[in-house]
Amino acid sequence: MTPTPRVMLLIDADNVSADVIEQAVQRTMDEYGAIHVRRAYCNAEMAVNRQAMFKRLSVRPMVNLSTGKNSTDIALAVDAIDLVIDERPDVVVLVSSDSDFAPLVIRLREKGCRVCGIGQQGKTGEETVGIYDAFIDLEHHGVKPAARTATAKKAAAKTAPAKKARATRATSATSASRAAAESSSADVAPAPAPAARKAATKTAARKTTKAAKSSQPAQPQAPKTPPTSEAAEFILAAVPALRSGKDVQLNDVAQALRAAGLLGKHGSSLKLFDKLTAEFVVMQHPDRIRWTGASAS
Known about the structure:
Elements: E1 7-12, H1 18-32, E2 37-43, H2 44-49, H3 51-56, E3 60-64, H4 71-87, E4 91-95, H5 102-110, E5 114-120, H6 126-129, E6 134-138, H7 145-186, H8 194-214, H9 230-238, E7 248-249, H10 250-259, H11 269-274, E8 280-283, E9 288-291
Parallel strand pairs: 1-2, 1-4, 2-3, 4-5, 5-6
Antiparallel strand pairs: 7-9, 8-9
């Protein structure tokens, strides 16, 4: 009996659509029977938007907090080399239409891996296809024109009764206004009695008092606390001890971030927090981290 090959699936989630990712996972399962490593590399916003899909497909999101050009691609390439050395896969499947992965594909092949690519149709160039041992272009299944037309018709059918009701109410209100105007022009109102004049005077006095109060300047409102950024939320989820606002050892924080996949094996936690100085304070001797948002919450 032929043993099941060890397969590693690495996804450039910033480069391909969600439905292409789902197709890629299914194609790889159909081809090899099992996927031993499943990782998707993306920014924090993409991880939040696609977290339900990643959970359903058992794909581990590797969140890239850096914003530099090609920083997600570099994170994927560094992890790929580490994983090939540690996991010894037989096949590596890269899901991306980016031709920048050519050096990585060559290096993985030198390590004894078969390297296959999966891209999104319409985004993959000919030079990208040629570097892999095998390559599949998957079509992005968007909403078809017929489906969009049917959806628009349903929405129009739902809103038509409401529009008709609003038009009927507007017509009734106009008719009532005209009737009241005709009635008031036909009848001459009698002069108000002394008691009515007193009541009118009191009403006018109350209105004057209310107007004077409303003219007073409004009290200044306390400044709103800025919301916690998405990057900080990921860090706080990985290191709950930071939520207390107390100092936490830098080594403990770095280990928790690596375990959560927010920091690479050789990544620097200090460089990470240097980009989040508005929300985290780095103290030295000994090295500690404090979240500044705890006092505001």
